[in-house]
Amino acid sequence: MFPKLIDTGGFYLPTYGLLVALGFLAGLQLTTRLSKRAGLDPERINNVAIYCALAGLLGAKLFMFLFDWEIYARDPGQMFTLQTLQAAGVYQGGFLAAFFVGWWLIRRYGLPLLLTMDAFAPGVAIGQAIGRLGCLAAGCCWGGSCDRPWAITFTNEEANRLTGVPLNVPLHPAQIYEAVVNAVL
Known about the structure:
mainly alpha; two-stranded antiparallel ribbon
């Protein structure tokens, strides 16, 4: 698809990263509005969201290092490259880190758990929806082989190099499926 939005020499702005950032900002705006409506302290809600985002980034990178340990064990310097910095990481690690930091902060701030989760849920869903469009642009998180008319075929060699997406193979557009489901939520 379109993994690099801007490419100047050795630096590039990944489309995925930009869309994830826009998804976070859209989700944060919605969460803040819903938290005010629910009578929750918007400053504390913003703190929870920002700390969860930071924890998510850290957890995703840590899981990436664990899952690709053989690469980083052979060449530990790879951990500190621009390519590693630009890599998204592993979703499960980001989710777990963000979940535990969020749970801890909600308790620490004395926020009501269910009401706080209700305020966050729509923002998380819209942020995920926008982020999945970033996956589509990057070529990551692809679906299985597909013979349906709506199959998507990746042809961008850069996407293959960055994410390993199979080229010239009709695939289920799993990223679009997930974006639509999240948007509906």
